[in-house]
Amino acid sequence: MTPQFILSCIYFFLPAYFTNMTPPLLKRTGLFNFLAKPVDFGKKIGQNPILGGHKSWRGVIFGLIAGILIAGLQYWFYQFPFIQKISLVDYRQINVLFFGFLISTGAIFGDLLFAFIKRRLKMAPGARFLPFDQTNYVIGAFIFLEPFLKLSYFIWLTIFVLTFFLHIIVNHMGYWMGLHRNKW
């Protein structure tokens, strides 16, 4: 595994990273509070929320927008030889809006799926759920993208492992800077 391969995996997954980062960052700004309504509409299964009030339409909508915009930037940057060299896909040969939509929707789906699972396990929002807190959006993006892109499983495994460690590092930095309430 070369540094270029690692960079290629990170670059490919940027739309999902931004999709995942956007909801908590936007929540801290207080912008678009009218969209800060729970995706599950506050409904419960038994005594437990379906997803929890922290999963909002604001996060879903703006996470999706962020991911699509990053995919669009990847398409634009593909004109540069360095980007062509590190890209896992030829952005000229794919429908980049569809790619951005799928990777972002998959990332959101993964996040919501594991929020649903955590609530069924009676785990509170923010409770540690290794390794899925760090990688749920990789699993979701894989489910949504794999039927269309057919990347090697080694690439997906690499993205999974890289994301696990990157997520922990970034969250620790955010915690120490007072931007995140949990280290994980």
In short:
This protein has seven helices and two strands. It is mainly alpha-helical and 184 residues long.
Describe the structure.
Keywords: Membrane, Transmembrane, Transmembrane helix. InterPro entries: CarS. This is CDP-2,3-bis-(O-geranylgeranyl)-sn-glycerol synthase. It holds the Pfam family CarS-like. The chain is mostly helical and 184 residues long. The chain has one domain. It is 65% helix and 2% strand. It is built from 7 helices and 2 strands, in the order ααββααααα. Strands 1-2 form a two-stranded antiparallel sheet. α2 packs across α3. The mean pLDDT is 94.
Q: What composes the largest sheet?
A: 2 strands, antiparallel
Estimate the global geometry from the Cα principal axes. Answer: globular
Number of strands: 2
Question: What portion of the residues fall into strands of 2 or more residues?
Answer: under 5%
Query: What portion of residues is helical?
Result: 55-70%
The number of domains is 1
Strand order of the largest sheet: 1-2
Order of helices and strands: HHEEHHHHH
Determine the structural class based on helices, strands and strand pairing.
mainly alpha
Q: So how many helices?
A: 7
Mean pLDDT: 94
Give the low-confidence spans: none
